Amino acid sequence: MRHLRKTTSTWRKWKLFLMFFVLLCCSIYCFLFYKSIRLPTDSLIGSDTQDLHTCVHPVLPVNNPEILKHILPVQKITCNGEDDWVENNGTHAVLTSAAKAKYGGISCSFIEIERLDDRNIRILSDKLLTTTLYKFESADFVRVKCKSKDVGKRWQTFLAAPRNNIQVPMTSNGPGNRLHPKLNVLIWGHDSLSRNMFIRKLPQTFSYLDKELKGHVLEGYNIVGDGTPQALIPILTGSTEIELPEARLSQKSRAHFLNDAYPFIWKDYKRHGYLTGYLEDAPSIGTFQYRLMGFDKPPVDYYLRPYYIAAEAHFKKFLKYCIGSIPRHKIISNYVRNIMKAKKEVPKFIFSFHSELSHDSINLIQGMDVDLEDFMKDLEISGILNNTVLIVMSDHGHRFSTIRETQQGKLEERLPFMFFRFPTWFEKVYPTAYRNFIENKKILTTPFDIHKTLMDILHMTGLETDDQEFKIPNNSSSRQMSLFRIIPENRTCAMAGIEPHWCACLSWKNLEINSAIVRRAAYELINKVNDITHTNRRACAELMLSRIISASSLYPKEALMKFKKSSDMDGRVPDLSDKGGITHVIIQITVETNPGMGHFEASLQYDTKQDDFRINVRNKIILSKKGLSLSQINEAFAFRILKSVELMLMAFKRTVLTRIHR
């Protein structure tokens, strides 16, 4: 009998162990089964349909680890060599007292730089020899060569400042009005910076633009072609390169110089009494000279190219990225500042474009962040922005870095930085134009629209009656739409003149709500909500899925993902041979939960390679009111619901245990 009781006891232990083992195996099996529901990417992707629906641009995280692994910190560019012997104050070049004290008597020759054409300059033989100062009277650019009489030491540099005797254009439309004269337009551009990369690598500048100047970033701004010319030509002419007269160097005798061939917008501003400027560094890869004919005559009043052609040949004599004791990137910003401060009574249209630090590197541009922020601060403090529309922009994202091999990198390439800041009085004088601009910030826009907007700025006279004009909406069939007029929300890439492989708008597909991947997404959403409310469980009920209301997937256009590069040097023929495929899909889902019948809507990112979901808590999880929503459950009622659920679970537990015991 004792042996029988011992055997029975042993059997019960083994029975409990086997039950525990079976439950454990079932749990592991269920977990593995859940994780094994890998949905083939093809099931999430349908035909490209973005041209049939409102454009939805991707929300690309700035701190995506896939991108950040390529980002390296760069210190501020400093030029710690010998201090310059000559100081440029914007109107004069003055020999410094420090240099005189250190080296004794100094004499300097200032030799003017003459432009012959877009590829050649001449250093004039005539020179001004002085021991005091040089005045920028008839030339903007000079080579400076100094010699100490006492110790025989030599020093040289190149200087740029706006000449004083520039011919002021006559205007046919009057100067605006006394209260609000004609608006200046200052465009500050960078090569190869996506909107996200601008924020990553120029954080101080972006913070100042956003928080202090309180300007506006166009969140739906999309490129229309490959490379800098395809970004700038539509802004400056309203047309694409292929629509304009032939100007490619490769076409030799058939090619035209750009002065007469292209209808540059600065010509319109010039006719309306503006001084104009186009300033670009890196002359060897000039936007209008690398594969285009360039200009036979200076296209604008202030044209910086001759300076850089002259100085570039001597860069090796200075510290890296320096000219004398000045960082090279400050040459453009100092020149712009001095132009804007000169002849304040004359309106100005200035387009500057910086390439040297960003064209071939994703990281170097950070070296000018502090200086660029200081430049923006000076524009504000000096009062220049009181009557200036400031546009800070880039042409496109990086085209040659390894970042472009990622899905987000491909999308970022198509989404450059475009920022507008208006004078503080602008909103009051042009309330309709300003309100429309704000409403258009998130809508699909392009370089063509920037051109149309610049044309509207040109015709603003400062009179409040002008604002009535902007109540007339844009022509819905037009490729160019002013940002000061309402742009249709349902605008598509086809309507905006964007080819499929450049369109960053996401295609979308309705998903079967009973599919395994959709149910996984639903549970991921509910788990995320429960995690958020976990610490306040007395006030917030733990939610359970009642039903899935709708689900759809959003993904990059197939042509975009297949684009590898342009197969011709002119950027006209796309190579669509990339086989990388889509790695991330957005699943938009709406679910109903219990208790309370709350409706939750959210976007989840599905990683097709890792078979994993990600919900960014910074993105909105929308709760709509349906019956008793979660937000309406007060603490006492929530507690009673929890108690009821607890009692139900206890009853269920007792039932299960009873059946197991039997």
Q: What report would you give on this structure?
A:
By secondary structure, the chain is an alpha+beta fold. Helix 5 packs across helix 6 (203-212) and helix 11 packs parallel to helix 12 (369-381). It is elongated, with a radius of gyration of 32 Å.
Q: What is the distance, rounded to the nearest whole angstrom, between the alpha carbons of the first and last residues? A: 24 Å
Helix content: 25-40%
Uncertain spans: 32-39, 172-178, 626-662
Which range does the strand content fall in? Answer: 15-25%
- Rg, rounded, reads 32 Å
Q: Biggest sheet: strands, sense, closure?
A: 7 strands, mixed
Shape type = elongated
Helix/strand/pairing category: alpha+beta
Number of strands: 24
Total number of helices: 20
Strand order of the largest sheet: 9-16-15-8-14-10-11
Mean pLDDT across all amino acids: 86
